[in-house]
Specification:
Blueprint (H helix, E strand, L loop, with lengths): L7 H14 L14 H20 L9 E3 L2 E3 L10 H13 L2 H14 L11 H16 L2 H16 L2 E2 L4 E2 L16 E3 L6 H11 L3 H16 L10 E4 L6 E5 L11 H18 L2 H15 L34 H15 L4 H18 L19 E4 L4 E5 L2 H18 L8
Antiparallel strand pairs: 1-2, 3-4, 5-6, 6-7, 8-9
Helix pairs in contact: 2-3, 2-13, 3-4, 3-5, 3-13, 4-5, 5-6, 5-7, 6-7, 7-8, 9-10, 9-11, 11-12, 11-13
Length: about 425
Protein backbone atom coordinates (compact mmCIF):
# COMPACT_ATOMS: atom_id res chain seq x y z
CA UNK A 1 0.00 0.00 0.00
CA UNK A 2 1.64 3.22 -1.16
CA UNK A 3 -0.09 6.33 0.12
CA UNK A 4 2.12 8.66 -1.94
CA UNK A 5 0.90 7.22 -5.24
CA UNK A 6 -2.70 8.15 -4.52
CA UNK A 7 -3.66 11.18 -6.62
CA UNK A 8 -5.19 14.25 -5.03
CA UNK A 9 -8.41 13.68 -6.96
CA UNK A 10 -8.65 10.06 -5.81
CA UNK A 11 -8.06 11.12 -2.23
CA UNK A 12 -10.77 13.79 -2.37
CA UNK A 13 -13.25 11.38 -3.94
CA UNK A 14 -12.50 8.77 -1.27
CA UNK A 15 -13.02 11.24 1.55
CA UNK A 16 -16.22 12.64 -0.03
CA UNK A 17 -17.62 9.11 -0.26
CA UNK A 18 -16.54 8.53 3.31
CA UNK A 19 -18.66 11.41 4.59
CA UNK A 20 -21.68 10.01 2.79
CA UNK A 21 -21.13 6.49 4.07
CA UNK A 22 -21.05 7.66 7.66
CA UNK A 23 -24.68 8.79 7.62
CA UNK A 24 -26.65 6.82 10.19
CA UNK A 25 -29.73 4.73 9.56
CA UNK A 26 -32.46 4.09 12.12
CA UNK A 27 -33.83 0.66 13.06
CA UNK A 28 -37.27 0.39 11.49
CA UNK A 29 -40.29 -0.83 13.47
CA UNK A 30 -38.14 -1.45 16.53
CA UNK A 31 -39.77 -2.25 19.86
CA UNK A 32 -38.08 -0.65 22.85
CA UNK A 33 -38.66 -2.14 26.28
CA UNK A 34 -36.75 0.23 28.55
CA UNK A 35 -38.42 3.52 29.38
CA UNK A 36 -36.95 6.98 29.05
CA UNK A 37 -37.28 7.40 32.81
CA UNK A 38 -35.32 4.19 33.43
CA UNK A 39 -32.47 5.42 31.23
CA UNK A 40 -32.50 8.91 32.71
CA UNK A 41 -32.49 7.55 36.27
CA UNK A 42 -29.46 5.36 35.62
CA UNK A 43 -27.61 8.18 33.88
CA UNK A 44 -28.36 10.44 36.83
CA UNK A 45 -27.12 7.79 39.24
CA UNK A 46 -23.98 7.36 37.17
CA UNK A 47 -23.35 11.11 37.19
CA UNK A 48 -23.67 11.23 40.99
CA UNK A 49 -21.20 8.36 41.30
CA UNK A 50 -18.63 9.99 39.03
CA UNK A 51 -18.90 13.27 40.92
CA UNK A 52 -18.38 11.39 44.20
CA UNK A 53 -15.34 9.61 42.74
CA UNK A 54 -13.91 12.94 41.57
CA UNK A 55 -14.33 14.43 45.04
CA UNK A 56 -12.08 11.72 46.47
CA UNK A 57 -9.11 11.96 44.11
CA UNK A 58 -6.57 14.56 43.04
CA UNK A 59 -7.09 16.48 39.81
CA UNK A 60 -4.00 14.84 38.32
CA UNK A 61 -5.28 11.33 39.11
CA UNK A 62 -6.68 9.34 36.20
CA UNK A 63 -8.80 6.56 37.71
CA UNK A 64 -8.28 2.94 36.77
CA UNK A 65 -9.92 0.89 39.55
CA UNK A 66 -10.67 0.72 43.26
CA UNK A 67 -9.41 -2.17 45.36
CA UNK A 68 -9.33 -2.89 49.10
CA UNK A 69 -10.61 0.58 49.89
CA UNK A 70 -7.92 2.32 47.82
CA UNK A 71 -7.99 4.17 44.53
CA UNK A 72 -5.71 2.82 41.82
CA UNK A 73 -4.58 5.40 39.26
CA UNK A 74 -2.13 4.05 36.69
CA UNK A 75 -1.32 7.30 34.92
CA UNK A 76 -1.75 8.84 31.49
CA UNK A 77 0.34 6.26 29.60
CA UNK A 78 -1.84 3.35 30.76
CA UNK A 79 -4.25 2.19 28.06
CA UNK A 80 -7.29 3.05 30.17
CA UNK A 81 -6.46 6.73 30.66
CA UNK A 82 -9.08 8.08 28.26
CA UNK A 83 -12.08 6.30 29.71
CA UNK A 84 -12.69 8.35 32.86
CA UNK A 85 -12.81 11.73 31.09
CA UNK A 86 -14.79 10.09 28.30
CA UNK A 87 -17.36 8.85 30.81
CA UNK A 88 -17.68 12.35 32.27
CA UNK A 89 -18.20 13.77 28.76
CA UNK A 90 -20.94 11.24 27.95
CA UNK A 91 -22.66 12.04 31.23
CA UNK A 92 -22.44 15.75 30.48
CA UNK A 93 -24.08 15.06 27.12
CA UNK A 94 -26.88 13.16 28.83
CA UNK A 95 -27.49 15.48 31.79
CA UNK A 96 -26.15 18.88 30.67
CA UNK A 97 -24.54 19.16 34.11
CA UNK A 98 -21.57 21.43 33.37
CA UNK A 99 -19.62 20.12 36.36
CA UNK A 100 -19.24 16.86 34.44
CA UNK A 101 -17.80 18.71 31.45
CA UNK A 102 -15.37 20.35 33.86
CA UNK A 103 -14.37 16.95 35.31
CA UNK A 104 -13.62 15.56 31.87
CA UNK A 105 -11.80 18.67 30.73
CA UNK A 106 -9.66 18.80 33.87
CA UNK A 107 -8.00 15.49 32.95
CA UNK A 108 -7.08 16.43 29.39
CA UNK A 109 -4.04 18.50 30.24
CA UNK A 110 -2.51 15.42 31.88
CA UNK A 111 -3.37 13.26 28.85
CA UNK A 112 -2.24 15.57 26.07
CA UNK A 113 1.39 14.44 26.08
CA UNK A 114 0.27 10.96 25.01
CA UNK A 115 -0.31 12.34 21.51
CA UNK A 116 3.42 11.77 21.01
CA UNK A 117 3.43 8.25 22.43
CA UNK A 118 4.56 5.87 19.68
CA UNK A 119 5.02 2.96 22.05
CA UNK A 120 1.37 1.88 22.29
CA UNK A 121 -1.40 0.77 19.96
CA UNK A 122 -4.04 2.04 22.39
CA UNK A 123 -4.09 5.71 21.44
CA UNK A 124 -7.67 5.33 20.27
CA UNK A 125 -8.78 4.36 23.76
CA UNK A 126 -6.55 7.02 25.30
CA UNK A 127 -7.21 9.98 23.00
CA UNK A 128 -10.36 9.38 20.99
CA UNK A 129 -12.53 8.42 23.97
CA UNK A 130 -11.35 11.58 25.74
CA UNK A 131 -10.33 14.32 23.28
CA UNK A 132 -12.63 12.91 20.59
CA UNK A 133 -15.69 13.25 22.81
CA UNK A 134 -14.50 16.67 23.98
CA UNK A 135 -14.26 17.88 20.38
CA UNK A 136 -17.62 16.38 19.47
CA UNK A 137 -19.41 18.05 22.36
CA UNK A 138 -17.70 21.43 22.36
CA UNK A 139 -16.68 21.91 18.72
CA UNK A 140 -13.43 23.46 19.96
CA UNK A 141 -11.10 22.46 17.13
CA UNK A 142 -8.41 24.85 18.27
CA UNK A 143 -8.13 23.04 21.59
CA UNK A 144 -8.50 19.43 20.52
CA UNK A 145 -7.95 18.78 16.81
CA UNK A 146 -4.16 18.97 16.87
CA UNK A 147 -3.98 16.48 19.73
CA UNK A 148 -6.08 13.99 17.77
CA UNK A 149 -4.22 14.45 14.49
CA UNK A 150 -0.81 14.19 16.15
CA UNK A 151 -1.96 11.13 18.05
CA UNK A 152 -3.21 9.43 14.89
CA UNK A 153 0.13 10.08 13.23
CA UNK A 154 1.88 8.54 16.23
CA UNK A 155 -0.37 5.47 16.02
CA UNK A 156 0.25 5.15 12.29
CA UNK A 157 3.98 4.67 12.93
CA UNK A 158 3.15 1.24 14.36
CA UNK A 159 1.72 0.05 11.05
CA UNK A 160 3.88 -2.48 9.19
CA UNK A 161 3.60 -2.87 5.42
CA UNK A 162 4.66 -6.54 5.55
CA UNK A 163 2.22 -7.74 8.21
CA UNK A 164 -0.45 -5.24 7.12
CA UNK A 165 -1.25 -4.62 10.78
CA UNK A 166 -0.62 -2.21 13.61
CA UNK A 167 1.73 -3.77 16.13
CA UNK A 168 0.24 -4.22 19.59
CA UNK A 169 3.10 -4.87 22.01
CA UNK A 170 6.81 -4.23 22.03
CA UNK A 171 8.65 -7.03 23.83
CA UNK A 172 7.20 -9.52 26.29
CA UNK A 173 6.75 -13.28 26.14
CA UNK A 174 3.85 -15.65 25.58
CA UNK A 175 2.79 -18.24 28.16
CA UNK A 176 5.21 -20.76 26.64
CA UNK A 177 8.05 -18.44 27.58
CA UNK A 178 8.83 -17.54 23.98
CA UNK A 179 9.29 -13.87 23.04
CA UNK A 180 6.64 -12.31 20.86
CA UNK A 181 7.88 -11.48 17.39
CA UNK A 182 5.18 -9.11 16.12
CA UNK A 183 2.04 -9.59 18.25
CA UNK A 184 -1.35 -8.23 17.21
CA UNK A 185 -4.29 -8.50 19.61
CA UNK A 186 -7.99 -8.40 18.81
CA UNK A 187 -8.31 -5.37 21.11
CA UNK A 188 -6.56 -3.37 18.41
CA UNK A 189 -9.79 -3.26 16.40
CA UNK A 190 -11.01 -0.68 18.89
CA UNK A 191 -8.35 1.86 17.95
CA UNK A 192 -9.30 1.94 14.27
CA UNK A 193 -12.21 4.33 14.83
CA UNK A 194 -9.66 6.92 15.93
CA UNK A 195 -7.81 6.61 12.63
CA UNK A 196 -11.03 6.67 10.62
CA UNK A 197 -12.27 9.82 12.31
CA UNK A 198 -8.98 11.64 11.85
CA UNK A 199 -9.20 10.91 8.12
CA UNK A 200 -12.48 12.81 8.18
CA UNK A 201 -11.01 15.69 10.15
CA UNK A 202 -8.00 16.08 7.87
CA UNK A 203 -9.44 14.91 4.52
CA UNK A 204 -6.42 12.62 4.44
CA UNK A 205 -7.24 9.01 3.47
CA UNK A 206 -3.97 7.70 4.90
CA UNK A 207 -5.37 6.88 8.32
CA UNK A 208 -8.54 5.28 6.99
CA UNK A 209 -6.51 3.07 4.66
CA UNK A 210 -4.41 1.86 7.58
CA UNK A 211 -7.59 1.08 9.52
CA UNK A 212 -9.09 -0.84 6.60
CA UNK A 213 -5.91 -2.78 5.94
CA UNK A 214 -5.56 -3.77 9.60
CA UNK A 215 -9.24 -4.78 9.80
CA UNK A 216 -8.91 -6.93 6.67
CA UNK A 217 -5.78 -8.70 7.95
CA UNK A 218 -7.40 -9.31 11.33
CA UNK A 219 -10.52 -10.68 9.68
CA UNK A 220 -8.39 -13.13 7.71
CA UNK A 221 -6.19 -14.36 10.55
CA UNK A 222 -7.86 -13.84 13.93
CA UNK A 223 -11.07 -15.85 13.60
CA UNK A 224 -12.12 -19.46 13.76
CA UNK A 225 -14.88 -20.88 11.57
CA UNK A 226 -17.48 -20.26 14.30
CA UNK A 227 -16.58 -16.52 14.38
CA UNK A 228 -14.84 -16.76 17.73
CA UNK A 229 -11.59 -14.83 17.96
CA UNK A 230 -8.09 -15.68 19.03
CA UNK A 231 -6.66 -13.10 21.38
CA UNK A 232 -3.14 -12.80 19.92
CA UNK A 233 -1.78 -13.52 16.46
CA UNK A 234 2.01 -13.37 16.22
CA UNK A 235 3.48 -12.47 12.81
CA UNK A 236 6.83 -12.65 11.12
CA UNK A 237 7.47 -8.95 10.62
CA UNK A 238 9.64 -9.58 7.58
CA UNK A 239 7.27 -11.82 5.61
CA UNK A 240 3.90 -11.15 7.21
CA UNK A 241 3.37 -14.88 7.78
CA UNK A 242 1.43 -16.01 10.84
CA UNK A 243 3.76 -17.64 13.36
CA UNK A 244 1.31 -18.51 16.13
CA UNK A 245 -2.21 -17.96 17.44
CA UNK A 246 -2.22 -17.56 21.21
CA UNK A 247 -3.92 -15.99 24.19
CA UNK A 248 -2.61 -13.63 26.84
CA UNK A 249 -5.74 -13.00 28.91
CA UNK A 250 -7.92 -15.98 28.06
CA UNK A 251 -8.19 -19.36 29.74
CA UNK A 252 -6.20 -21.19 27.03
CA UNK A 253 -5.12 -20.57 23.45
CA UNK A 254 -8.21 -22.09 21.81
CA UNK A 255 -10.72 -20.54 24.23
CA UNK A 256 -12.96 -17.57 23.54
CA UNK A 257 -11.76 -14.90 25.95
CA UNK A 258 -14.96 -12.97 26.59
CA UNK A 259 -13.76 -9.39 26.27
CA UNK A 260 -11.89 -10.30 23.11
CA UNK A 261 -15.18 -11.29 21.51
CA UNK A 262 -16.63 -7.95 22.62
CA UNK A 263 -13.76 -5.99 21.09
CA UNK A 264 -14.25 -7.90 17.83
CA UNK A 265 -18.01 -7.29 17.73
CA UNK A 266 -17.69 -3.60 18.46
CA UNK A 267 -14.75 -3.17 16.08
CA UNK A 268 -16.33 -4.75 13.01
CA UNK A 269 -19.68 -3.05 13.63
CA UNK A 270 -17.79 0.26 13.70
CA UNK A 271 -15.81 -0.60 10.57
CA UNK A 272 -19.04 -1.27 8.69
CA UNK A 273 -20.28 2.15 9.75
CA UNK A 274 -17.07 3.76 8.54
CA UNK A 275 -16.88 2.00 5.16
CA UNK A 276 -20.21 0.28 4.42
CA UNK A 277 -18.14 -2.73 3.34
CA UNK A 278 -20.57 -5.63 3.69
CA UNK A 279 -17.90 -8.10 4.72
CA UNK A 280 -17.54 -6.17 7.97
CA UNK A 281 -21.29 -6.36 8.61
CA UNK A 282 -21.25 -10.09 7.90
CA UNK A 283 -18.39 -10.49 10.37
CA UNK A 284 -20.14 -8.47 13.07
CA UNK A 285 -23.34 -10.48 12.66
CA UNK A 286 -21.39 -13.74 12.86
CA UNK A 287 -19.59 -12.65 16.01
CA UNK A 288 -22.87 -11.53 17.59
CA UNK A 289 -24.51 -14.86 16.76
CA UNK A 290 -21.59 -16.80 18.24
CA UNK A 291 -21.62 -14.75 21.41
CA UNK A 292 -25.39 -14.60 22.02
CA UNK A 293 -25.90 -18.30 21.32
CA UNK A 294 -22.97 -19.50 23.39
CA UNK A 295 -24.01 -22.32 25.69
CA UNK A 296 -22.13 -20.83 28.64
CA UNK A 297 -23.64 -17.36 28.48
CA UNK A 298 -25.58 -16.94 31.77
CA UNK A 299 -29.26 -16.06 31.73
CA UNK A 300 -28.60 -12.49 32.90
CA UNK A 301 -26.19 -12.11 29.93
CA UNK A 302 -23.26 -11.06 32.10
CA UNK A 303 -20.55 -13.45 30.87
CA UNK A 304 -17.83 -15.34 32.61
CA UNK A 305 -14.40 -13.84 31.92
CA UNK A 306 -13.84 -16.57 29.35
CA UNK A 307 -16.73 -18.17 27.47
CA UNK A 308 -14.92 -21.52 27.66
CA UNK A 309 -13.99 -21.31 31.33
CA UNK A 310 -15.82 -24.57 31.97
CA UNK A 311 -13.41 -26.35 29.61
CA UNK A 312 -10.21 -25.49 31.43
CA UNK A 313 -7.47 -28.11 30.96
CA UNK A 314 -7.04 -30.53 33.86
CA UNK A 315 -4.88 -28.98 36.54
CA UNK A 316 -5.30 -25.44 35.22
CA UNK A 317 -4.11 -22.82 37.68
CA UNK A 318 -7.19 -20.77 36.82
CA UNK A 319 -9.63 -23.35 38.20
CA UNK A 320 -10.30 -21.38 41.38
CA UNK A 321 -11.06 -18.25 39.35
CA UNK A 322 -13.12 -19.81 36.59
CA UNK A 323 -16.53 -18.49 37.67
CA UNK A 324 -15.76 -14.78 37.88
CA UNK A 325 -18.04 -12.67 35.74
CA UNK A 326 -16.78 -9.80 33.60
CA UNK A 327 -19.13 -6.84 33.66
CA UNK A 328 -16.89 -4.88 31.27
CA UNK A 329 -17.59 -7.38 28.49
CA UNK A 330 -21.34 -7.05 28.91
CA UNK A 331 -21.13 -3.25 28.78
CA UNK A 332 -19.10 -3.30 25.55
CA UNK A 333 -21.43 -5.84 23.92
CA UNK A 334 -24.57 -3.93 24.99
CA UNK A 335 -23.28 -0.79 23.32
CA UNK A 336 -22.13 -2.60 20.17
CA UNK A 337 -25.44 -4.41 19.71
CA UNK A 338 -27.37 -1.15 19.73
CA UNK A 339 -25.29 0.11 16.83
CA UNK A 340 -25.51 -3.23 15.02
CA UNK A 341 -29.30 -3.07 15.30
CA UNK A 342 -29.46 -0.06 12.97
CA UNK A 343 -27.60 -1.89 10.19
CA UNK A 344 -29.89 -4.93 10.24
CA UNK A 345 -33.60 -5.50 9.78
CA UNK A 346 -36.67 -7.12 11.25
CA UNK A 347 -36.27 -9.91 13.78
CA UNK A 348 -32.50 -9.78 13.65
CA UNK A 349 -32.40 -6.08 14.49
CA UNK A 350 -34.93 -6.59 17.27
CA UNK A 351 -32.89 -9.47 18.66
CA UNK A 352 -29.89 -7.18 19.04
CA UNK A 353 -31.97 -4.50 20.73
CA UNK A 354 -33.63 -6.99 23.08
CA UNK A 355 -30.36 -8.59 24.11
CA UNK A 356 -28.78 -5.19 24.68
CA UNK A 357 -31.76 -4.23 26.82
CA UNK A 358 -31.34 -7.36 28.92
CA UNK A 359 -27.67 -6.58 29.45
CA UNK A 360 -28.40 -2.98 30.39
CA UNK A 361 -31.12 -4.12 32.80
CA UNK A 362 -28.78 -6.59 34.46
CA UNK A 363 -25.99 -4.03 34.73
CA UNK A 364 -28.38 -1.48 36.22
CA UNK A 365 -29.16 -3.41 39.38
CA UNK A 366 -27.58 -5.52 42.09
CA UNK A 367 -25.16 -7.23 42.15
CA UNK A 368 -23.52 -5.29 39.31
CA UNK A 369 -24.52 -1.68 39.89
CA UNK A 370 -23.01 -0.01 42.93
CA UNK A 371 -25.03 2.04 45.38
CA UNK A 372 -24.25 5.73 45.74
CA UNK A 373 -20.83 6.29 47.36
CA UNK A 374 -20.17 2.54 47.28
CA UNK A 375 -17.39 1.06 45.16
CA UNK A 376 -15.23 4.18 45.49
CA UNK A 377 -17.58 6.02 43.16
CA UNK A 378 -17.22 3.63 40.25
CA UNK A 379 -20.57 2.86 38.65
CA UNK A 380 -20.28 -0.90 38.12
CA UNK A 381 -18.84 -3.77 40.14
CA UNK A 382 -17.46 -7.22 39.26
CA UNK A 383 -15.19 -6.77 36.25
CA UNK A 384 -12.08 -8.76 35.41
CA UNK A 385 -8.93 -7.28 33.93
CA UNK A 386 -6.69 -10.31 33.46
CA UNK A 387 -6.90 -13.52 35.45
CA UNK A 388 -3.72 -14.97 33.85
CA UNK A 389 -1.82 -11.89 35.03
CA UNK A 390 -3.57 -11.96 38.42
CA UNK A 391 -4.56 -8.30 38.02
CA UNK A 392 -7.85 -6.46 38.47
CA UNK A 393 -9.92 -9.50 39.41
CA UNK A 394 -13.50 -8.88 40.55
CA UNK A 395 -13.08 -5.11 40.83
CA UNK A 396 -14.61 -2.02 39.20
CA UNK A 397 -12.91 -0.93 36.00
CA UNK A 398 -13.04 2.45 34.32
CA UNK A 399 -13.78 1.01 30.88
CA UNK A 400 -16.76 -0.96 32.18
CA UNK A 401 -18.25 2.34 33.34
CA UNK A 402 -17.44 4.03 30.02
CA UNK A 403 -19.17 1.49 27.81
CA UNK A 404 -22.13 1.14 30.18
CA UNK A 405 -22.72 4.89 30.02
CA UNK A 406 -22.18 4.83 26.25
CA UNK A 407 -24.82 2.10 25.94
CA UNK A 408 -27.29 4.17 27.99
CA UNK A 409 -26.59 7.28 25.90
CA UNK A 410 -26.99 5.32 22.66
CA UNK A 411 -30.26 3.84 23.89
CA UNK A 412 -31.48 7.28 24.90
CA UNK A 413 -30.75 8.55 21.39
CA UNK A 414 -32.74 5.70 19.86
CA UNK A 415 -35.71 6.38 22.13
CA UNK A 416 -35.64 9.99 20.92
CA UNK A 417 -35.52 8.93 17.28
CA UNK A 418 -31.97 10.23 16.92
CA UNK A 419 -28.94 8.67 15.28
CA UNK A 420 -27.34 6.07 17.51
CA UNK A 421 -23.93 7.54 16.63
CA UNK A 422 -23.13 11.24 16.89
CA UNK A 423 -19.92 12.55 15.39
Amino acid sequence: MNFKRMSAVTALVMVAQYFLLSAEAQPKSAQFKLSASFVERNLTDAAQQIKFLESNIQESDIPTTYKNGKYVNWGSSWWCSGFYPGTAFYLYEATQDKSLLDIGTSKLKYLEKEKNNKGTHDLGFMLYCSFGNALRLTGDSAAYKDVLVTGAESLSTRFNEQTKTIRSWDGGKNWDGEPWTYPVIIDNMMNLEFLSQVSKMTHNPKYLKIAITHANTTLKNHFRKDYSSYHVVDYDKQTGNVLAKKTAQGAFDESAWARGQAWALYGYTMMYRETRDKKYLKQARGIADFYLRHRNLPSDLIPYWDLDQNNLPTGSKYEKDKNFRDVSTAAIVASALLELSVYTKGKESQQYISNSEKMIESLSKSPYKASYKENGGYILMHSVGSIPHNTEIDVPLTYADYYYVEALVRYQRLLRGESVIKE
